[in-house]
Amino acid sequence: PFFVKDYYDYYKTERGYHKRSLNSNDGWTAIGCMSFISQPIIAYSDEIRSAVLIIHGEKAHSCYFSKDEFEKLTGDNKELLIIPDAVHTDLYDDMEIIPFDKIEEFYNQYL
User: Fold this and answer.
1) Which domain holds residue 13?
2) Nearest 5 degrees, angle CA 76-CA 82-CA 87?
């Protein structure tokens, strides 16, 4: 899958590699990630009362997940921001597309 290439381009290169990073060193297979399977906390999405800002790359393989969870949120203090042409890892370090102004605006309004 294409997203594997995106992760490789980040975690296995100078861009995001760290010798103690789970994602750079196959740590997930060594320690397991069962606690993240199905992410149980999302079962309570409809109970969240706090403001929620979801930011996702348009081309991220998991973009559907953010859209689905956004629909489950019941408050009127929620926002879904899809970054055009961005993949998941672009939002880690691409200062040109990370929406800092929008994040600041959201924090100023809801914190």
Assistant:
1) 2-110
2) 145
CA pair distance 72, 17, nearest whole angstrom: 35
Q: What is the maximum alpha-carbon separation in the chain? A: 42
- What tokens were used for 33? 């990630």
The DSSP 8-state label assigned to residue 51 in this structure reads -
> Do 81 and 55 form a contact (C-beta atoms < 8 A)?
yes
For residues 85 and 63, give the distance between their C-alpha atoms in angstroms, rounded to a whole number: 12
Question: What are the structure tokens assigned to 60, written together?
Answer: 């991220």
More confident residue, 104 or 11: 104
Residue 35 has pLDDT above 60, yes or no: no
